[in-house]
Specification:
By secondary structure, the protein is an all-alpha fold. It contains 4 helices and no strands.
């Protein structure tokens, strides 16, 4: 009786599971998983807020496909500018206050 072949799925799991040999490895792995979870949760929350804004613009303000597409494109441009540190939340809040007399607190 020889050894039975391991199913392919189990081999894939073992191939992609890190080997944790020291307490430092375990701590590092836990921190990385926490960071990944935090990033995923942040991205999901931001996507949910964008989806809510798109729905409200359509449902309450009558935006159709063309204006919603322009809104999404402009949101992507704004996100790129913020990621490149060309613009920040404080600057947007200040502009909304001076141009629209709209008080935003965060």
């Amino acid at each position: 009786m020889g050894r039975k072949p391991m199913p392919e799925a189990l081999r894939n799991i073992q191939r992609h599971t890190p080997v944790l040999r020291t307490l430092g490895d375990v701590e590092y792995f836990a921190q990385e998983m926490y960071r990944k979870g935090a990033r995923d949760a942040t991205e999901k929350a931001a996507s949910g807020r964008l989806l809510m804004a798109i729905w409200l613009l359509h449902d309450k303000f009558g935006f159709g496909n063309k204006r919603l597409s322009r809104f999404i494109d402009e949101m992507n441009v704004l996100a790129d500018e913020m990621n490149a540190k060309l613009l920040d939340e404080k600057g947007i809040i200040k502009a909304l206050k001076s141009e629209c007399d709209l008080e935003i607190t965060m």
